[in-house]
């Protein structure tokens, strides 16, 4: 297999949205560092992390630039700063909290109105380890997804447990597979070619001061 087929790379901006205490930061830290902290403090403003997944079927490494936003209402006005130019968004809710599910739906409505066209939205139910306390059923989530996807097939869903780690990697793998990888790789190659062409046409001696014959310094 040629190097061109194996050395494929795409980079995407991803933002997490959702009510406070649904576990957005815990999901990110489980994905990035494979750790979980029961006493994790609330995010202030937003936190930035990066992590990559490998898609073996396409021999591609997908790097996520992750913006984990604060869930408190006082930070809501800052959210557009983070989902602007985002390629994907995780709208997270707590499966044991119906109010958080309603809030996640509000975020999806906002993204469909304000976010970039074509953004991949994933509705993520966290705290799967608390199945016995579930308030939001999988059936109603599936019905909600089906209803929205009649308009535009860009909304996906998943469930996970940041505490146990179950399903967390699957969330990001699912998102990676839904992203326009070929477009990103093609655009990156086109930019590199333009840079090479511009560099090839630069005269590196153009602005260099010329020393006259017979002249001396000082």
TrEMBL record:
<feature type="coiled-coil region">
    <location>
        <begin position="127"/>
        <end position="154"/>
    </location>
</feature>
<dbReference type="InterPro" id="IPR027417">
    <property type="entry name" value="P-loop_NTPase"/>
</dbReference>
<feature type="region of interest" description="Disordered">
    <location>
        <begin position="199"/>
        <end position="218"/>
    </location>
</feature>
<keyword id="KW-0547">Nucleotide-binding</keyword>
<keyword id="KW-0175">Coiled coil</keyword>
<feature type="compositionally biased region" description="Polar residues">
    <location>
        <begin position="207"/>
        <end position="218"/>
    </location>
</feature>
<dbReference type="InterPro" id="IPR005225">
    <property type="entry name" value="Small_GTP-bd"/>
</dbReference>
<protein>
    <submittedName>
        <fullName>Vacuolar protein sorting-associated protein 21</fullName>
    </submittedName>
</protein>
<dbReference type="InterPro" id="IPR001806">
    <property type="entry name" value="Small_GTPase"/>
</dbReference>
<dbReference type="Pfam" id="PF00071">
    <property type="entry name" value="Ras"/>
</dbReference>
